[in-house]
Amino acid sequence: MVSESAIADAAALLRAGELVAIPTETVYGLGGDALNPLAIRRIYATKGRPAGHPVIVHLARDADWTKWGHFSAAAHTLAQAFWPGPLTLILPRQAHVPLEVTGGLETVGIRVPGHPAAQALLSAFGSGIAAPSANRFGGVSPTTAAHVRAEFGDTVRILDGGPSSIGIESTIVDVTSDSPALLRPGSISEEEIEALIGPLGQSNPPAPGTLKSHYAPMTSLLLSHNPEMDRIRLESEGRSVAVLAATRPEEHARNLYGELRRLDALGVDILIAEMATNVGIGLAINDRLSRAATKLSTDK
Ligand code: TXA
Ligand code: MG
Q1: What is the DSSP string of 43-84?
Q2: Do the domain assignments include residue 212?
Q3: Considering only CA atoms, which of 298, 297, 287 is closest in space to residue 215?
Q4: pLDDT tens digits for 117-129?
Q5: Is 238 left (phi over 0), alpha (psi -120 to 50) or beta?
Q6: Using an 8 Å Cβ cutoff, are 44 and 51 in contact?
Q7: Count of other CB atoms within 10 angstroms of residue 37
Q8: Of ligand 1's atoms, which has the minimum distance to the CA of residue 208?
Q9: If you measure from the C-alpha of residue 89 to the centroid of ligand 1, how many angstroms do you get, rounded to a whole number?
Q10: φ and ψ at 243, to 5 degrees?
Q11: How many CB atoms within 10 Å of residue 68?
Q12: Residue 300 has pLDDT above 90, yes or no
């Protein structure tokens, strides 16, 4: 349990324009006051993230969400069904939402997280908290307070709410137009969404920040359907390897980033990650793994 004084301290820091790393059920976020452009700039600077990448606004379950974005009927349906929870909706922004938050776009990403400590902080703060994942730009998202500390040291205050229960980032659905689109797969599946609002379209163009290379460890990563065979082959070529095996899908997702971090620190030549079966949350796992395995020349 997170103490009331820890919540009060974190809310005071946010009010002062400082950043606080916040626990959510998906991954930890690097939070700042969503209405304070200076706090948002601080988020960009701390992450080393280029400007123009929009940041998700997190809201309390009993906040008036419509103060932040325009909800279509489909948006309403999804919010009622999945909030609080691991779903982000992209909506037309309300005029007072700073362009620093939206990356200059006329749309805003909104999520009502389910984690009790995040909800307690949002209630105490009484406004929206802008928060991208609490990792340096392009790196692996953090699912524990220790991961956040490994990213930023003691420079960022952390509200420790324990390990994230889901372990991969929220499903993102663009509901700004008449044909809603999936922008990022997550633990809430496309099928669950389509059952409520009908077929989803393709996102075109893709969300800024959904780069091909993302969530990447330093070590080269090989995706595999048969990790044992690949291990034997690579070792016979004289290369040292470590294997991240697939487990039950929910467990695989929960442990994914922690395992990538742990294996990355071993100093082997190659990490082999076993792909998940391409259904449900497995699709989201494979999405993250393929981005983690893609090294662009602009990396590092
Ligand atoms: O689970 C999550 O979503 C976590 C936790 C902390 O809430 N947050 C997260 O934030 O993953 P971030 O910034 O690492 O990824 C957010 C993604 C980015 O790809 C960004 O481009 C997209 O959401 N996004 C945010 N606002 C958007 C908007 N207005 N239009 C299109 N994409 C948007
Ligand atoms: Mg991120």
Answers
A1: HHHHHTPPTT---PEE--TTS-GGGTB---HHHHHHHHHH-S
A2: no
A3: 287
A4: 999 999 999 999 9
A5: left
A6: yes
A7: 15
A8: 21
A9: 10
A10: -115, 130
A11: 23
A12: no
Q: Is 96 exposed, middle or buried (0-12, 13-18, 19+ CB in 10 A)?
A: exposed
**Ligand 1 atom with minimal separation from the 113 CA:** 7
Distance between CA atoms of 212 and 272, rounded to whole angstroms? 19
Count how many domains the chain has. Answer: 2
Let me know if 240 is exposed, middle or buried by CB neighbors in 10 A (0-12, 13-18, 19+): exposed
* Residue 30 φ then ψ, to 5°: -100, 100
Distance CA 32, CA 129 (A): 6
Residue nearest ligand 1's atom 18 by CA: 209
Q: How far is C-alpha 82 from the geometric centre of its chain's CA atoms?
A: 16
Give residue 284's domain range.
220-292
Q: Residues 268, 297: contact at Cβ < 8 Å?
A: no
Q: What is the pLDDT of residues 198-226, one digit of tens each?
A: 999 876 665 555 656 677 889 999 999 99
Ligand 1 centroid from CA 25, angstroms: 15
Nearest ligand, measured from the Cα of 22: 1
C-alpha R_g of the chain: 19
Say if residue 136 is in the same domain as residue 245: no
Q: How far apart are CA 95 and CA 214, in angstroms?
A: 31
Residues 146, 189 within the same domain: yes
Would you say how long the chain is, in residues?
A: 300
Does residue 205 sit within a domain? Answer: no
Distance of CA 35 from the midpoint of ligand 1 (Å): 17
